[in-house]
Predict the structure.
Amino acid sequence: MNICVFLSAADLDERYTRPAREFAELIGKGGHTLVWGGSDVGLMKVVADGVAEAGGRLVGVSVEFLQSKARPTADEMVVARDLAERKALLLAKSDAVVVMVGGTGTLDEATEILELKKHGHHIKPVVLLNAAGFYDGLKEQFQRMENEGFLPLPLTDLVFFAEDGASAMAYLEESAGIQ
């Protein structure tokens, strides 16, 4: 399975790096491929290292203005012209999407992927990895959107909130029919 991971390129503390590393190891040990923003810095590097060390494949999609930060040892690296093309390529190359902790760029990626799913442009499973309760506020907001009629489908059909990497991977493998 090709698993797209949206996440921060910032250097973060253990409460975020540990769950990310654990999930990365599950990707690699499961024989899956990481599809990510291609950067070799911060949390992106932590995840890429974990996947590679556990035997997984790395497919990066960088962007021209960040190409200098791209991981030189990725199995495949594509360089997009801009962020919009990058998001489209990341989605096209993946079978599932996991959103880890991040800033405005990660939030932009997550909301676009969910909007596309809401409108039927893809049916890929989407997981928000809620490390250290990072997405508790967003989960509450999504529940309010559902309760007040802003979502045309149940929230559970749109996104799965995972508290740890094991539950995220179990959900993805179940969605893909992998036993």
